[in-house]
Amino acid sequence: MSELSYLGKLLDGVEVEWKMLGEVIHSLKTGLNPRQNFSLNTLDAQGYYVTVREIQNGKVVFLDKTDRVNDRALKIINGRSNLEAGDILFSGTGTVGRIAVIEENPINWNIKEGVYTIKPIKEKIAPRFLSYLLQSSKIVKDYSKKIVGNPVISLPMGDLKKLLIPIPCPGNPEKSLAIQAEIVRILDKFTALTAELTAELSMRKKQYNYYRDQLLSFDEGEVEWKMLGDLGENLDSKRKPITSGLREAGSIPYYGASGIVDYVKDYIFDGDFLLISEDGANLLARNTPIAFSISGKSWVNNHAHVIKFDSYAERRYVEYYLNSIDLAPYISGAAQPKLNKKNLESIRIPNPSPEDKERIVSILDKFDALTNSINEGLPREIELRQKQYEYYRDLLFSFPRPETASN
């Protein structure tokens, strides 16, 4: 008997009661804003001040840019939030709905105002059961109707307390918790697999970066160096920007500095080209690649340089190299970073033999497919596993709801 069949038998004929969240929790609180209570990032600040951004994939993840607080501030915040193991963190402002379950009593961190602490009554509802439930599609749809604010949005705590949630077998707490535990066990398997794949992807990306840097590093005198302008043909003069209101919708990709920004009816390029960001904050932030290959019919605006090369290996080699180096020396402007045509074409690039370029590109293409491709490799596998988890999560929480039970 499959796990889902077993659970179906376990749930067969079980009564389900829809209760307000406030009925199955001890409290719903939030942290403190430092405006008048304490200061962030003081010289003696060693604790962490958790905001929405630190709630990632069901856990609290401390980042390099996480704000820090001192012991006095931690005590002040804890007087309000009183974090404990088994509590659920719920982001109630900004990016509403991020969730983490606290596994151990926090020692050196606490939360910001806008991050809510949900304390489940564990005799009625298991913390992990509630955390999965709050991520299910129907529940998210219910509480999304109560979100207010513009431009900063929030879900008022009073409305969250009124959120209706299903409790299986409410008249028999022991059986109810057993059912909840079984649902959690099944969903934990899916999330564990996704976590394993994500960890492997992170490791593979580090491996990819290592080999890329090794393959694209050359000793002095090992190869000749050429300027980018000598390796490819610049086609910037053929670009044509079109304001959004004048674009005619179609199936041809319309490219900007960081990728596709729209689809249009006509095209000005047809073939294989390398696009390189001309302006924008990403030139310095590098959140996405500043060089990327395109193929087929396309339209490119004036925010991306267009370079044509004689071969696939030449184009991809330059693409990999540009994405691996610091381009700051070639970028002008602070408020509006820009890589102009003159500076772009002056970038010095090592120029090994065509055979070596083909070998390097072949190796890096395999790593790229494994770590970045949405059609194959680990990203595709993670996407499929995530969809599978979401499907079974929503299936497991598809308890019948009486017509009178509406939020």
Structural overview:
Helix content is 36%, strand content 22%. It has 407 residues and is of the alpha+beta class. It has helices spanning 3-11, 71-81, 127-133, 137-144, 157-161, 173-215, 228-231, 282-285, 312-322, 341-345, 354-372, 377-396; strands at residues 16-20, 25-30, 47-50, 55-56, 59-60, 67-69, 88-91, 99-101, 109-111, 115-120, 164-168, 224-227, 233-234, 249-256, 259-264, 269-277, 291-300, 304-308, 348-351. The strands form 6 sheets. The protein has a 6-stranded mixed beta sheet. A 4-stranded antiparallel beta sheet has the order 2-10-7-8, with helices on one face. A 3-stranded mixed beta sheet has the order 6-3-9, covered by helices on one side. The radius of gyration is 27 Å and the shape is elongated. The protein is built from 12 helices and 19 strands.
Write the layout of secondary structure elements.
Layout (H helix, E strand, L loop, with lengths): L2 H9 L4 E5 L4 E6 L16 E4 L4 E2 L2 E2 L6 E3 L1 H11 L6 E4 L7 E3 L7 E3 L3 E6 L6 H7 L3 H8 L12 H5 L2 E5 L4 H43 L8 E4 H4 L1 E2 L14 E8 L2 E6 L4 E9 L4 H4 L5 E10 L3 E5 L3 H11 L18 H5 L2 E4 L2 H19 L4 H20 L11
Parallel strand pairs: 3-9, 14-17
Antiparallel strand pairs: 1-11, 2-10, 3-6, 4-5, 7-8, 7-10, 12-19, 13-18, 14-15, 16-17, 16-18
Helix pairs in contact: 1-6, 6-11, 6-12, 9-11
Shape: elongated
Uncertain segments are none
Q: For the terminal residues, how far apart are their CA atoms?
A: 37 Å
Strand order of the largest sheet: 13-18-16-17-14-15
- Overall SS class: alpha+beta
In terms of DSSP E residues, the strand content is 15-25%
Percent of residues in helices? 25-40%
Mean pLDDT: 88
Instruction: Give a count of the beta strands, DSSP E runs of length 2 or more.
Output: 19
What does the radius of gyration come to? 27 Å
Q: Counting H and I runs of at least 4 residues, what is the number of helices?
A: 12
